[in-house]
Amino acid sequence: MSTLDGGPTRSVSALCETLSKYSEFKIALSYLVEKDSKVGHIGNSSILNAPFEKNNRFYFINFLAFALRIIRINRVNIIHLHGCWHPVCVVGFLCSKLCGIPYVVHPRGMLEPWCMAHKRLKKLLGWYLYQRTIMTNSRTIFVTSDEEQRNIERLVSGSHTTLIPNFIIPPTSVQLLSKKQKRTGQPKRLLFLGRLHEKKGLELLFSALSKIRVENWELRVAGSGEAGYENSLKHLAKDLGLDDKVQFVGQKSDEEKWAEYT
């Protein structure tokens, strides 16, 4: 688990850290492609990573056996699945059925219309083979917005959803500037803050910006993604004549994010 990956690796670790202040969590089971098992700690929780390589032909069976052993040793009461489509989700579902314990699912936006349309045939195959069953039998499905809730309820008939918006950690040292202090005489600043991925629509944003006739502006792209995709965005900005307007400033920490807003 690396916070550089953003998304679930950040929010799941923050969830474990927060919940561990109120009750004791013995273990958080995660997926890691490493040869050796590693144990870490988040608050009062332990992280035990599965010591199996994904490309190993027995990976799925080994991971299932590993998960079952950990669940029984630690007397797990509930399984929390994050994301969809990955074999780890199937392992969690099977563990729930074999051990007779409930599970909940947090799709992390992976069932949104854009995601379902991306690699559509592969998604349809996975949906009817296993993902629909996983969603239908979940004790509840966590969503983060009204829109996601509506999409899930249309996709999974009779599903029970629980809306919990993403939380924001306020700054501790960065002070937001007052309106009178904001960037007097400096270029108007646009900010993209998030993971660099094609589903975010940055190509569309660049195309739109290349057509505007407003002077004295800049776009700061704060985030990280696959190196190849990030390079393609830089080439696109250059091809559209925006290379002097678009700044790629990399991923920002929580404190640095607040500074970007100023």
Architecture overview:
The protein is an alpha/beta fold and 262 residues long. The protein is 39% helix and 16% strand. It is built from 9 helices and 10 strands. Helix 2 packs across helix 3 (87-99).
Descriptive tags:
single chain; 262 residues; alpha/beta; three-stranded parallel sheet; 9 helices; 39% helix
Averaged pLDDT:
82
Compute the CA-based radius of gyration.
21 Å
Distance between the termini: 30 Å
Number of strands: 10
| Class from helix and strand fractions | alpha/beta
SSE string? HEEEHEHEHHEHEEHEHEH
- Please describe the biggest sheet, giving its number of strands, its sense, and whether it closes into a barrel: 3 strands, mixed
The level of helicity is 25-40%
Q: Please indicate the percent range of residues in DSSP E strands (runs of 2 or more).
A: 15-25%
What is the molecular shape?
Answer: elongated
Structure annotation, total helices: 9
Strand order of the largest sheet: 1-3-2
Low-confidence stretches: 32-39
